[in-house]
Amino acid sequence: MSSPRRQEIISTLPSLGWLIAFFALPCLISLTLAFRASDLRGGVGDGWTLETVKSLADPIYVPVLMRTVGISFITTMVCLMLSLPMAWHMARCSVNWRNALLLLIILPFLTNFIIRIFAWRSLLHPDGPLKHLLVWLNLISEDALLLNNIGAVMLVMIYTQLPFAILPLYAAAEKFDFHLMDAARDLGATGWSAFRKVFLPGVRQGIISASVIVFVSSLGQYVIPQFVGGTMDEMIGNKIVQRAFTDRNLPLASALSGALLIMVMIPVLMMTWRERRARA
Amino acid sequence: MRSLLFLLALALPAFAADTLHIFTWADYISPETVEKFEKANKCKVVIDTFDSNESMYAKLKAGAKGYDLIFPTSYMIQLMVTEGLITELDHSKLTHLSNIDPAVLDKVSDKSMRHSVPYTLAYTVLACRSDKVSNPESSWSIFERPDVKQRMTLLDDMRESIGAALKSLGHSINTRDEAQLAAAQEVLLRWKAQAAKFDNEGYKAGLDSGEFTLVHGYSGDLWQVAQENKKITLIVPQEGTIMGCDEMVIPKSAPQAALAHAFINHLLDAEVAAENMQWTGYLCPNTAALKKVDPEFLSNPAVTMPEAIRAKSEVIQDLGADLAKYTKVWDAVKR
């Protein structure tokens, strides 16, 4: 073994060990539980069974699954659309501005996530300030509701995930050579087609990482639908909580988590595969 | 300094008197009641709390030892008895057992108090904002009123919400009949279309702030909110409702079983129970103590539940394998 290779292994060992102990092993344990019999007392019974995994084919999961993927997909698309101009602007503005903007993006993380969701609940309250303003502006009717519906879930999802789209896109845009845009304009491209044909391919890597990060972390959300969603807005995360706590069926909760894990793995593996192909 | 001394006292059990370890819900026994017991028995009482029957059960099952007295809900006690975790009570040490209301005993599964003694009784009720819902009817059918659409909540609890739908149809909340459950599912789907949320926690604040105008919740909690906000009215559905009974049990592993018996007897004393229930806000089914409480406390609809409604109300029972039938309905409702 060559010495740089060995050094690489030694330097990644601590984080690798951490991931094995606190990520890979727990995942494996929970996946194993999916193949154990369930126990009515809320524990895990003896013996092995494939029934739990087979029960995932039950059509009751279809709407929840479609909703989870749909909400995550729309969140990803809207976050990309909002963060592309932001990343463009941040890459081109002065250093002071850029630092101020970065600080503003990171600022919400200084408060607790749950507290921010509750702030949204107050803002969207049926007697809240936003409702009164919109009614006063004649934009919505008196009985329109802003809270406890799919619109509120989407709004808070996009709000929560937006920084995770802006940061990788900004990192990519910062490395982009904006002289290429001038060159495109010189060669007769309109502003829009230069953006589309030169800038977007130039920050492709950033777009891919932003999409994967936002999509993957959206798939596993359950707090947002629980707090700002209504009765029709459950995601797969809420189902897992129900299986584990109300139904006292740990193997089924594990099987569902396994399904979620596979859903999460697909985009991540696709990204790794593309990266490897691009390098080759 | 005081807490330091307290810790020190805990660390030196050899010098301390006997210690009684209680495992119960938060704020569930008045400090005065505990102090009186400590003085009379020259012992120390240590209270540890749990937030759900399931977590308490999981802890015991995982081998937690050292608890002398536990306060689970009656359906969980059935399970704990079958698992052999609970000891039989020595009735000769429980001189105040006769204070327990026989009407309540009739509702729980352990009617002869072999393993458990009822501690409190709570009901699942409704509450509305009287300024937003006019002439609320005392019936589960209030969930179908057009003026509460998207402004009402249902409990995010399978047994509670399916139970309410079953009660609205006049069926038992512990039914194993699939046709009755299918009918309840239809009712629940209609209610769901009306509901803003399935919610177990936020409904109190939501009702107070006006986010919701009608909520499905527990009598003790709703009584407390109604005390703060005069626009809130409690509604008891005349078709009957679900009663929750928390009971006292002594685990087989209890190191101080005799002291635990003494504590149960202390809580059953009429004077003590009267003081205790006014502090916790929950009804203790203690006939002698109810004669000693403040009349204002008795205006709580959960305490003076009309006899006709109480007779139609039931306690949730453990259904074993048939619980899957409820899960199926709940899945169909929540999809």
Automatic annotation (TrEMBL), chain B:
GO cellular component, one term: periplasmic space
Signal peptide, first to last residue: 1-16
Any single Pfam family the record assigns to this protein: SBP_bac_8
GO terms for biological process, alphabetical: polyamine transport
Keyword Secreted attached: no
Gene3D superfamilies: Periplasmic binding protein-like II
Keywords: Periplasm, Signal, Transport
Molecular function per GO: polyamine binding
Binding site for spermidine: Y75, D157, M158, R159, E160
InterPro entries the UniProt entry points to: SBP, Sperm_putr-bd
Keyword ATP-binding: no
Subcellular locations according to the entry: Periplasm
Identification of the protein by name: Spermidine/putrescine ABC transporter substrate-binding protein
Organism: Brevifollis gellanilyticus
